[in-house]
Amino acid sequence: MSHKQRLPRPSTPPGLPPETSYHPKSKLSFGVVCSSNINRSMEAHVVLGNAGLRVESYGTGTQVRLPGRTAMEPRIFKFGTPYEEMHQSMNVTPEDTTYFTRNGVLQLCQRGAAVKRAPQRWQDMASEDISKHNIVIAFEERIFDAVIEDLQLRQPTEDFRPMHVICLDTKDNPHEAARQGIVALRLCWRLEHCEDLDLEAAEIIDEFQRERDSETNIKILYQVCYL
């Protein structure tokens, strides 16, 4: 039995939206990065985007890895594989549908397909595309390290301007991704509303870290890179 129907897309009424629905674009551009661009970075992509911030999401892994039926049998896809195609491959039989719905993987694919076509790999992006980001949020220390290493290896762009790279260490599960998506929004919102990002970012992040220490032991790392 096959379940290869296309994923439903949100529908909108015809005509122009009312003027009250228009919101100014954020002055800053945000990049959010996890390993496979399907859980932590996609949660942040949705949360920041819904708040009106300009945001794109990426992964740094060599492949997109999703939980399989056992820890030794993950579902592996190449970056650039459409989320819809991933969803279909794990929705072939009723048993697949039941299992991958229960572990939340089908829902992750559905969310991804509603936001963009496919996972994007940070290291494969053109420098001109990623240099537009003022702020990059990585959701794990090794991902933070991979982003910084990649930026240091790239040839400088013509503009050669600072990028503020921040690590919000987050366990790779949907519950923690949802919690940290809100944390990322709070931090990004403060950075969005500062008067001079390059002068104020370090102080804002330090203050945010102190506040978070009273609530949860979250590790925040920060480094300025140029591209």
The CATH homology group name of the largest domain: Response regulator
Main sheet characteristics: 5 strands, mixed
Radius of gyration, in angstroms, nearest whole number? 18 Å
Query: Strand order within the widest sheet?
Result: 2-1-5-6-7
What's the helix-strand series?
EHEEEHHHHEHEHHE
**Class by helix and strand content?**
alpha/beta
The average pLDDT value, as a whole number, equals: 90
Structural shape: globular
Pfam families: Ssu72
InterPro entries: RNA_pol_II_suA
Catalytic activity: O-phospho-L-seryl-[protein] + H2O = L-seryl-[protein] + phosphate; O-phospho-L-threonyl-[protein] + H2O = L-threonyl-[protein] + phosphate
Function: Protein phosphatase that catalyzes the dephosphorylation of the C-terminal domain of RNA polymerase II. Plays a role in RNA processing and termination.
Could you walk me through the main structural features you see in this protein, from its secondary elements to its overall organization?
The chain has 227 residues and is α/β, with parallel strands linked by helices. It has 2 domains: 29-61 and 121-226, 3-Layer(aba) Sandwich (Rossmann fold); 64-115, no CATH class. It contains 8 helices and 7 strands, in the order βαβββααααβαβααβ. A hairpin with an 8-residue loop joins strand 3 and strand 4 (75-77). Helix 2 packs antiparallel against helix 4 and helix 7 (174-192) crosses helix 8 (197-213). It is globular. It starts with 28 loop residues before the first strand and ends with a strand. The mean pLDDT is 90.
Task: Outline the secondary-structure elements.
Elements: E1 29-34, H1 40-50, E2 54-59, E3 64-66, E4 75-77, H2 83-89, H3 94-102, H4 105-115, H5 127-130, E5 135-138, H6 141-153, E6 162-168, H7 174-192, H8 197-213, E7 220-226
Parallel strand pairs: 1-2, 1-5, 5-6
Antiparallel strand pairs: 3-4, 6-7
Helix pairs in contact: 1-7, 2-4, 7-8
